[in-house]
């Protein structure tokens, strides 16, 4: 199977795309030894700042520096406006879907989504039924993963509505580029993103009906893979970073322990999963949560962002229905396309997937981080056969998609500049309005030919520029 890849920087005839011309000129005029020196500088600065992620199950030690590439991913403003509208439309529909399934369940009664797909889903939380949330917002912070196919069209690969991560790398990548290459930003108009923490804080405050609510960031602790980000966002917003042991519930209200005594907490930006939030309501063995938190939440005395039970909407078995959600709730056609998806729980889809495994990507419906998936074209016969057995044993736990021709962007690799596959995760904030900063996290698969961009699988990141047309 041959693929044609959309190159972000160059046209098929080798000519540079207009929004990359300034950068290409600069690149041609900059000595390669200076670039190499700046790259070393970036690594050193990232290391000093502690910009790492935790790699679980690795014998070499868990802390890793996420590789940073100094060639930015550039998107013209006119193209970005379409992406922005599409992401806003999608997140609005998903929030409406979550409100509906925990209340009237109109979409289930209309037969658009099979009820068992939702109600028997492990992300569906019975405790949320009938609970009214301020502004009916369940996912205050959403990450929408986008890829580009060979024809240049954007596709949504997946939605992240539980605890989407990566925004700190988006912000730090920009800071690094501005520090190392200020002349690049003087030469062209690159839309700013440094106001994201202010927007995030505004979104979190607007999630509460209170006048000036106290916001905290709840982290599982420093051994979590995204701890750097939790600490970074708390610092940038000027709010407290807390762990479960720092909070307690009294008379259905949440308080924070401080040196000056107990202080009420109104909004918790939680970066741990539902199961660990409250040992009295969910996993009784959790040492990370706050006993009584769910009762306080259900009483309306505290806001959790994102809401409990959002996971059902970003489950990969629900993903194929998002286009229908947009039509059902918004009476609009989807602006961004879904990737064609086979649901292995359907016998007809399963037989198609089993017959075409070497050409497909197969994912666990509950999986994330690039784990538990099969990339058929990059797998051995033994790996394919092992996955075939898994599919036959538990077909309902998997979906499959065609192998997309992910777009490429020139990237510094060991032997010079070469194209590498990328994706894009814009971050959508839902509060008084639904909005996003102009940009996102561009992840790059650094291994030649690899389509897996996750940092846990050897991927790196790039700064994402939205440039004036």
From TrEMBL:
Taxonomic path: Bacteria, Pseudomonadati, Pseudomonadota, Gammaproteobacteria, Pseudomonadales
Name by which UniProt lists this protein: Uncharacterized conserved protein, circularly permuted ATPgrasp superfamily
Domain Circularly permuted ATP-grasp type, first and last residues per copy: 72-445
Superkingdom classification of source: Bacteria
Species this protein is from: Pseudomonas segetis
């Amino acid at each position: 199977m041959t693929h044609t890849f959309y190159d972000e920087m160059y046209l098929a005839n080798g000519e540079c795309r207009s929004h990359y011309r300034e950068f290409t000129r600069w690149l041609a005029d900059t000595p390669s030894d200076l670039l190499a020196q700046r790259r070393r500088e970036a690594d050193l600065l990232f290391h000093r700042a502690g910009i790492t992620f935790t790699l679980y199950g690795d014998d070499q030690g868990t802390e890793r520096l996420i590789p940073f590439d100094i060639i930015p991913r550039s998107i013209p403003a006119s193209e970005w406006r379409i992406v922005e509208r599409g992401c806003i439309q999608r997140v609005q529909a998903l929030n409406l879907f979550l409100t509906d399934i925990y209340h009237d369940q109109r979409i289930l009664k209309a037969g658009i989504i099979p009820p068992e797909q939702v109600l028997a889903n492990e992300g569906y939380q019975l405790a949320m039924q009938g609970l009214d949330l301020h502004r009916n917002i369940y996912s205050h912070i959403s990450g929408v993963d986008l890829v580009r196919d060979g024809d240049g069209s954007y596709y949504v690969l997946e939605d992240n509505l539980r605890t989407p991560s990566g925004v700190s790398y988006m912000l730090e990548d920009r800071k690094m580029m501005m520090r190392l290459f200020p002349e690049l930003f003087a030469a062209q108009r690159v839309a700013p993103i440094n106001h994201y923490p202010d927007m995030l804080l505004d979104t979190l405050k607007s999630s509460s009906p209170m006048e000036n609510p106290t916001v905290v960031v709840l982290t599982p602790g420093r051994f979590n893979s995204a701890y750097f980000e939790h600490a970074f966002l708390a610092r940038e917003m000027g709010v407290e970073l807390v762990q479960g042991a720092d909070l307690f519930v009294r008379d259905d209200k949440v308080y924070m322990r401080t040196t000056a005594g107990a202080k009420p907490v109104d909004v918790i930006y939680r970066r741990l999963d539902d199961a660990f939030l409250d040992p009295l309501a969910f996993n009784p063995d959790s040492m990370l949560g706050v006993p009584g938190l769910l009762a306080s939440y259900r009483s309306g005395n505290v806001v959790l962002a994102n809401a409990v039970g959002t996971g059902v909407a970003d489950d990969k078995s629900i993903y194929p229905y998002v286009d229908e959600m947009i039509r059902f709730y918004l009476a609009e056609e989807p602006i961004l396309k879904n990737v064609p998806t086979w649901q292995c729980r359907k016998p007809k889809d399963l037989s198609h997937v089993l017959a075409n495994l070497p050409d497909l990507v197969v994912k666990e419906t509950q999986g994330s981080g690039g784990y538990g998936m099969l990339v058929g074209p990059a797998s051995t016969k033994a790996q394919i056969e092992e996955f075939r057995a898994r599919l036959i044993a538990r077909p309902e736990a998997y979906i499959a998609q065609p192998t997309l021709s992910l777009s490429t962007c020139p990237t510094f690799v060991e032997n010079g500049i070469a194209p590498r596959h990328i994706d894009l995760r814009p971050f959508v904030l839902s509060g008084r309005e639904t909005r996003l900063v102009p940009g996102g996290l561009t992840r790059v698969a650094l291994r030649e030919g690899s389509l897996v961009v996750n940092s846990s699988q050897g991927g790196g990141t790039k700064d994402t520029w939205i440039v004036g047309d």
